[in-house]
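User: Sequence recovery, please. Input:
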Protein backbone atom coordinates (compact mmCIF):
# COMPACT_ATOMS: atom_id res chain seq x y z
CA UNK A 1 0.00 0.00 0.00
CA UNK A 2 1.39 3.38 -0.95
CA UNK A 3 1.23 6.49 1.20
CA UNK A 4 0.27 10.07 0.40
CA UNK A 5 1.77 12.80 2.61
CA UNK A 6 -0.54 15.81 2.85
CA UNK A 7 0.49 19.13 4.32
CA UNK A 8 -2.39 20.71 6.23
CA UNK A 9 -3.01 24.17 7.64
CA UNK A 10 -6.56 25.17 8.66
CA UNK A 11 -6.93 27.55 5.70
CA UNK A 12 -8.80 27.21 2.40
CA UNK A 13 -5.53 26.10 0.77
CA UNK A 14 -4.95 23.45 3.43
CA UNK A 15 -8.52 22.23 3.10
CA UNK A 16 -8.15 21.97 -0.69
CA UNK A 17 -4.93 19.96 -0.33
CA UNK A 18 -6.49 17.60 2.20
CA UNK A 19 -9.62 17.08 0.10
CA UNK A 20 -7.49 16.30 -2.96
CA UNK A 21 -5.29 13.87 -1.00
CA UNK A 22 -8.32 12.07 0.46
CA UNK A 23 -9.98 11.75 -2.95
CA UNK A 24 -6.76 10.37 -4.45
CA UNK A 25 -6.32 7.93 -1.54
CA UNK A 26 -9.84 6.62 -2.07
CA UNK A 27 -9.17 6.17 -5.81
CA UNK A 28 -5.95 4.21 -5.42
CA UNK A 29 -6.29 2.68 -1.95
CA UNK A 30 -3.42 4.67 -0.44
CA UNK A 31 -3.08 5.61 3.18
CA UNK A 32 -2.64 9.27 4.13
CA UNK A 33 -0.23 10.89 6.56
CA UNK A 34 -1.51 14.38 7.36
CA UNK A 35 1.24 16.69 8.58
CA UNK A 36 -0.79 19.34 10.39
CA UNK A 37 0.29 22.85 11.27
CA UNK A 38 -1.50 24.71 14.08
CA UNK A 39 -3.76 27.49 12.85
CA UNK A 40 -1.56 30.45 13.69
CA UNK A 41 -2.90 32.40 10.70
CA UNK A 42 -6.56 31.84 11.52
CA UNK A 43 -9.00 33.29 14.01
CA UNK A 44 -10.13 29.85 15.08
CA UNK A 45 -8.77 28.88 18.49
CA UNK A 46 -8.28 25.12 18.53
CA UNK A 47 -5.84 22.98 20.46
CA UNK A 48 -3.49 20.51 18.79
CA UNK A 49 -5.47 17.65 20.31
CA UNK A 50 -8.76 19.02 18.96
CA UNK A 51 -7.24 19.50 15.52
CA UNK A 52 -5.81 15.96 15.49
CA UNK A 53 -9.14 14.51 16.65
CA UNK A 54 -11.05 16.43 13.97
CA UNK A 55 -8.65 15.37 11.22
CA UNK A 56 -8.64 11.73 12.36
CA UNK A 57 -12.46 11.81 12.33
CA UNK A 58 -12.38 13.19 8.81
CA UNK A 59 -10.10 10.37 7.65
CA UNK A 60 -12.48 7.83 9.22
CA UNK A 61 -15.56 9.46 7.68
CA UNK A 62 -13.91 9.32 4.25
CA UNK A 63 -12.96 5.67 4.78
CA UNK A 64 -9.24 6.41 4.42
CA UNK A 65 -6.59 4.84 6.63
CA UNK A 66 -3.78 6.96 7.91
CA UNK A 67 -2.49 9.12 10.68
CA UNK A 68 -2.30 12.75 11.69
CA UNK A 69 0.89 14.27 13.08
CA UNK A 70 1.75 17.80 14.15
CA UNK A 71 5.03 19.11 12.86
CA UNK A 72 7.74 19.62 15.43
CA UNK A 73 11.12 21.23 15.47
CA UNK A 74 12.83 24.41 14.41
CA UNK A 75 12.75 23.53 10.71
CA UNK A 76 9.03 24.09 10.46
CA UNK A 77 6.42 22.49 8.28
CA UNK A 78 8.67 22.00 5.25
CA UNK A 79 11.17 19.89 7.21
CA UNK A 80 8.41 17.80 8.75
CA UNK A 81 6.67 17.17 5.42
CA UNK A 82 10.00 16.33 3.74
CA UNK A 83 10.94 13.98 6.60
CA UNK A 84 7.65 12.10 6.27
CA UNK A 85 8.01 12.05 2.48
CA UNK A 86 11.29 10.12 2.75
CA UNK A 87 9.54 6.88 3.70
CA UNK A 88 9.92 4.14 1.09
CA UNK A 89 6.18 3.73 0.55
CA UNK A 90 5.42 7.43 -0.15
CA UNK A 91 4.08 7.83 -3.67
CA UNK A 92 2.94 11.45 -3.53
CA UNK A 93 3.14 14.69 -1.53
CA UNK A 94 0.18 17.09 -1.60
CA UNK A 95 0.36 20.73 -0.54
CA UNK A 96 -1.99 23.69 -0.82
CA UNK A 97 -0.96 26.69 -2.88
CA UNK A 98 -2.26 30.25 -2.78
CA UNK A 99 -3.13 32.01 -6.00
CA UNK A 100 -0.44 34.55 -6.72
CA UNK A 101 -0.19 37.83 -8.56
CA UNK A 102 2.10 37.94 -11.64
CA UNK A 103 4.92 39.25 -9.44
CA UNK A 104 4.14 36.70 -6.72
CA UNK A 105 4.46 33.89 -9.25
CA UNK A 106 8.16 34.62 -9.53
CA UNK A 107 8.69 33.59 -5.91
CA UNK A 108 6.72 30.82 -4.23
CA UNK A 109 6.32 30.71 -0.49
CA UNK A 110 9.44 29.30 1.14
CA UNK A 111 7.63 26.21 2.47
CA UNK A 112 6.10 25.36 -0.90
CA UNK A 113 9.33 26.05 -2.74
CA UNK A 114 11.39 23.78 -0.47
CA UNK A 115 8.91 20.94 -0.77
CA UNK A 116 8.66 21.25 -4.56
CA UNK A 117 12.45 21.32 -4.95
CA UNK A 118 13.53 18.82 -2.30
CA UNK A 119 10.87 16.10 -2.13
CA UNK A 120 11.90 12.77 -3.64
CA UNK A 121 8.29 11.86 -4.42
CA UNK A 122 6.12 13.72 -6.94
CA UNK A 123 4.45 16.83 -5.48
CA UNK A 124 0.95 18.05 -6.28
CA UNK A 125 0.26 21.72 -5.47
CA UNK A 126 -3.50 22.21 -5.13
CA UNK A 127 -5.22 25.58 -5.49
CA UNK A 128 -8.54 26.53 -3.91
CA UNK A 129 -11.34 26.13 -6.48
CA UNK A 130 -12.92 29.39 -7.68
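Assistant: Recovered sequence (130 residues):
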Amino acid sequence: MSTIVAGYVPTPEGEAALAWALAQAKRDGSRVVVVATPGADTDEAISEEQQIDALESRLAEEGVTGEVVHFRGAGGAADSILDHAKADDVSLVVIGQRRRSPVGKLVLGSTSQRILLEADAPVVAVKVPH
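Residues 10 and 44 are 9 Å apart (CA to CA).
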